[in-house]
Design goal:
Distance between the termini: 145 Å
Oligomer: single chain
Order of helices and strands: HHHHHEEHHHH
Helix content: 55-70%
Number of strands: 2
Shape: elongated
Number of helices: 9
Structural class: mainly alpha
Length: 273
């Protein structure tokens, strides 16, 4: 049903681009269009209406935001995956171990479906400019998982990490358009359980507690720093006052010594002769 819906949608797009956009009408005597006659006027009216134009513009904007476009054709992953598996086996039979062999399966399939390849002579992954960052992040995430430094949970795995885009509900990247329950079977028990939600809530609470602890430590450190600054300022003022007093005392003593060493001066008027 999903495939039929996708084909019907593509067919309507083709009708719009071929006929409606150019103000043309299909030849209803043609076997391919004979069943359109009863619905054509309504279809054209909707496409030219404000609602139809608004929806089309919105869809175009959404399409522009899509960064990666697979090249699987109408058959999708259903026919592509067996071809990739066959190619991988051929490389292994030649004594070459593909670099992508240890990747998460759906990450590997997504990568191949978006123009990623493997060098047939060396087994090295060939990223291409567009997939460079994604491929490197997939390999990095796989290394974290193998070392035990990171434990993925359900759809929050290496591929989601590499793409930096949350997985859409109701489909699984790297496979056919299937739900998470079937696309990620090993995590199936968690889909009808609240255990994962409780664990995530616990992790969030721990992170929040850690954040508050760091904030409290920063506040305490700021207060301690402020007290140290005030203490240093007070000590500096005291030293400056002491220095001023010392300089004043030295100046007064110097003046007193000069006065004591000078001879007396008689300022009385001379006697009358």
């Amino acid at each position: 049903m999903q495939k039929m819906a996708k084909q019907f949608q593509d067919w309507k797009k083709k009708l719009y681009k071929t006929f409606v956009a150019h103000d043309r009408t299909p030849d209803f005597t043609n076997k391919a269009y004979v069943k359109l006659r009863p619905f054509w006027d309504e279809f054209v009216e909707f496409k030219n209406s404000d609602e139809g134009q608004t929806r089309m513009i919105k869809n175009q904007e959404n399409a522009k935001q899509k960064q990666y476009h697979h090249h699987l054709g109408s058959s999708g992953y259903r026919t592509a995956i067996p071809k990739w598996q066959k190619l991988e086996q051929e490389i292994l039979d030649r004594g070459i171990k593909p670099e992508s062999r240890h990747w998460l399966e759906r990450a590997m399939y997504w990568f191949f479906g978006n123009w990623g390849t493997v060098d047939l002579e060396t087994g090295k992954v060939v990223y291409g400019e567009k997939l460079q960052r994604v491929g490197q992040r997939i390999a990095y995430a796989r290394g974290l998982v193998e070392s035990g430094a990171w434990q993925p949970t359900r759809e929050k795995d290496e591929l989601t990490y590499a793409l930096e885009i949350a997985e859409h509900v109701g489909r699984t990247r790297g496979y056919r358009e299937v739900s998470w329950e079937h696309g990620l079977p090993k995590d199936r028990p968690t889909y009808r359980s609240r255990l994962r939600k409780k664990e995530e809530e616990g992790e969030r609470m721990e992170e929040e507690a850690e954040r508050l602890h760091r904030l409290e430590a920063m506040v305490m450190e700021s207060r301690e720093t402020a007290r140290e600054v005030i203490a240093r300022k007070k000590a500096l003022e005291e030293r400056m006052n002491e220095e001023i007093k010392r300089q004043v005392q030295m100046a007064v003593s110097s003046i007193q010594r000069q006065t004591a060493s000078e001879p007396g001066v008689n300022i009385s008027p001379p006697p009358i002769s």
